[in-house]
Design brief:
This protein has 264 residues and is α+β, with helices and mostly antiparallel strands. It has a domain of 119 residues. The protein has three helices and eight strands, in the order ααβαβββββββ. A four-stranded antiparallel sheet has the order 2-1-8-7.
């Protein structure tokens, strides 16, 4: 049986527990709810603090943006003001610049006009001088007629020189060293006016045409046509020149020509 003392002790302990429970004091081993509440409170305080920090940062960023916008607006206004001032200065200078530019252009045009007039005057003088020279030359050429002396010679590899060619023997022998025999066939003497021609029919039936082409400097210009071929000779006064054509039988036909101008 349970003793009375034991029963009294048990009742006493039960009453103490009930008293503690009614007074809100936790008993040993039951502190978990209190700790959880404290953690939640700490987390809430930390969350509120973070929100406050973010709000402060956002406010600071907005302030910086507004400040930069204001600074940019001020710079833009200053630039516009500066440009307006420069434009006004340019406008103020424009009449003077226009007048000065107009003066320069007028002076340049005047100088250019004087230069062009001088150039034109020199060109006219040159044209007149050239026209005078041409007219004088043409007049002189019109007044000039050439006298032509033609000697027709038959050349061969053998034979002797014709005594009738004594005055031409040295020139012929020097110019035609491959030939030994030279025979006089015929001679012609005639005159040709400026820009005119003369036709001579040779004994062998060939036609020779001589043309007076005027002068080039101090030289006479004489054109010779024979058998479809032509040659232009520029020769001095009284100079002897030859034109030769090969023939059958190791022979050659030589035309010895001497021309002189003859004024009317």
């Amino acid at each position: 049986m349970i003793s009375l003392r034991t029963t009294v002790v048990a009742l006493t302990l039960l009453g103490a527990v009930s008293l503690l429970a009614s007074s809100g004091v936790a008993y040993a081993g039951s502190d978990t709810p209190t700790m959880d509440a404290e953690k939640r409170a700490a987390r809430e305080r930390a969350t509120k603090k973070s929100a406050v920090v973010r709000a402060a940062r956002s406010t600071t960023t907005q302030s910086l943006i507004q400040q930069r916008v204001l600074e940019a607006a001020k710079k833009a206004k200053a630039m516009d003001r500066k440009r307006a001032q420069e434009a006004a200065k340019q406008i103020d200078r424009m009449p003077a610049n226009k007048e000065e530019a107009a003066k320069k252009v007028a002076e340049k045009n005047r100088e250019q006009g004087v230069k062009e007039a001088a150039d034109k005057a020199r060109d006219r003088q040159r044209v007149i001088a050239a026209a005078r020279r041409v007219a004088s030359q043409q007049k002189k050429q019109v007044q000039e007629t050439i006298s032509v002396a033609l000697t027709v010679i038959q050349a061969s590899k053998d034979g002797t020189a014709d005594p009738k060619l004594a005055t031409l023997q040295n020139e012929i022998s020097r110019s035609f060293k491959g030939y030994k025999g030279f025979t006089l066939i015929e001679t012609h003497a005639f005159q040709i006016k400026h820009a005119d021609s003369a036709v001579k029919r040779l004994k062998n039936g060939k036609a020779v045409v001589f043309s007076n082409m005027g002068k080039e400097g101090s030289k006479l210009r004489v054109r010779l046509d024979i058998d479809g071929a032509n040659v232009m000779m520029n020769v001095r006064e009284g100079e002897l020149w030859f034109h030769a054509r090969r023939e059958k039988g190791a022979k050659a036909l030589i035309l010895a020509v001497r021309a002189r101008s003859q004024a009317k």
